[in-house]
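Sequence in, structure out. Go.
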Amino acid sequence: MRPDPAGGGSLSIEVELVAGRGRSWWPRPGRVFAAGPTHTFAQLAEAVDRAFGRWDLDHLRMFVLPGGVEVSWSAWQDGPAFPGTHDGRRARLDLLTPGSCFAYVFDFGADWTHLCTIRRVSGTTCPPAVPALRGSWGDGPEQHGRDTADGTGHDAPAGLPPLLSSWRHLT
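Output:
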């Protein structure tokens, strides 16, 4: 069942940071967003990146949806989507279904990977004008590694869906 854009329903999207800058993050910092099915993946990505404190936003981005469907674009010089993918500036969140998991990758160099889950869909709540942060837990690491992490982090536990090949060794 897909959300009904005409019905004004609102999506609740949970986003957890899985890995980035060569390490797994555990416990995973997370953010919850309210969004509408007519919002684009680019709008969701901007909300996620800002909620995780990213400030250098001129990087490649990609979502990997169930079934291997890919949504991409480059924010650098307003670059195009990758061949064979949907353009994230036009593809809308109505491609998602309640309960589904998908992945978001920001900055292919640092490889910030996120597990995203559609937690609920409300047909009575009007979505915000743009995807909006509604809740959070855990501190997100500094984008370019200038934090004071002491190396005491733990490996991520098993249980990630095999959406990205880099996650297969974590499952």
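Check: The chain has one domain: 5-170. The two ends are 28 Å apart (CA to CA).
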